[in-house]
Amino acid sequence: MSFRRIVCSLTSIAVLGGLFCMPRFVQAEAGLAVPDRWSPPSREQLAEELTTWSQTSHVPVETKTQLLELWNNISDSSLPLRELLDRSLEISSAEIWEKLDSFRQTGNYQGPIELDTTNVDSWPPQFLIHHAKFVYGKWLAEKGLYDEALNELGEPLPDQVVDPAALLFFEASCQHYLLKKEECVTTLKQLLSRSEGLPIRYLAVSQMMLKDIEPLETDSLDEVARLMRDIERRLDLGRAGKKVRKTEEDVVAKLDKMIEDLEEQRKQQQQQQQQQQNQNGSNNPMRPMQDSMPGTESGPGDVDKKEMEHKHDWGDVPPKERQEALQQISNEYPSHYRRAIEEYFRKIARDPSAGNN
Question: Where are the annotated segments for Disordered (predicted)?
Answer without folding.
Answer: 263-336
